[in-house]
Design brief:
Layout: E1 5-11, H1 18-28, E2 38-42, E3 50-53, E4 56-59, H2 62-84, H3 91-94, E5 96-101, H4 104-111, H5 117-128, E6 131-137, H6 143-149, H7 160-179, E7 184-188, H8 194-204
Parallel strand pairs: 1-5, 1-6, 2-5, 6-7
Antiparallel strand pairs: 3-4
Helix pairs in contact: 1-8, 2-5, 4-7
Length: 207
């Protein structure tokens, strides 16, 4: 396992706080002691299964999504390998910090796959890159309030059925997260205190 690289993978449904924490990590990471000067922040559009493409929603196939995940990991592995060839150095000068949004767990939930050889290999590679998964969640009783707050970005009516399905999907994500071999924390974001959540994550990955 390399000491030159570490990172965070933010997972969760829409309105769970992924993007807000993503932005808070961008702001706060430079403040930590010996913070890496080399950073990569990739939002969900670079890895998620469903994307808005030329005016329509398009789903990646299982194989396409696995390839996307593998390609993004290969980028990190190549950069890390290059840094490691140069010998010992400080984290500040040569370390690499990355943050991905909607990555392997999003794939696992969409394709109900935690056990295929291809997926197990993805998780193993993430472990070798010192990745920490953070699954952002809402309390079920707060779901409707959170959805209504973001109603302008939701394409369906926020009915009781919609809220119930949202909570059901969240339970599924928590189950999958608990079975993942990648180190994972489940973070409730009801308080909307994005900077506090980001600091907790940064404290957690100090290695």
């Amino acid at each position: 396992m390399s000491k030159q690289i570490r990172g965070v993978i933010l997972e969760g449904q829409s309105c769970a706080g992924k993007t807000s924490i993503f932005n808070a990590l961008k702001r706060l990471h430079p403040e930590i002691p010996d913070a890496e000067r080399n950073v990569i922040f990739l939002a969900e559009h670079y890895s998620q299964t469903l994307n808005w493409v030329n005016g329509t929603f398009q789903n990646l196939t299982r194989e396409e999504n696995l390839k996307v995940l593998s390609d993004r990991i290969s980028m990190l592995e190549q950069l890390n390998a290059y840094a490691n060839t140069m010998g010992d150095s400080s984290r500040h000068s040569r370390g690499l910090f990355f943050v991905f949004e909607r990555f392997h767990l999003n794939y696992a939930v969409n394709f109900n796959d935690l056990t295929s050889d291809a997926y197990v290999a993805i998780e193993s590679r993430l472990i070798n890159l010192n990745a920490l998964t953070v699954l952002c969640t809402n309390s079920p009783e707060k779901t409707e309030q959170r959805l209504l707050h973001r109603a302008a970005y939701i394409t369906e009516p926020i009915t009781k059925e919609y809220v119930d399905n949202y909570n059901k999907d969240q339970r599924h994500r928590v189950e999958m997260a608990n079975k993942s071999s990648v180190p994972t924390i489940i973070m409730n974001t009801d308080d909307l205190d994005w900077d506090s959540y980001a600091r907790m994550i940064l404290d957690h990955i100090q290695v």
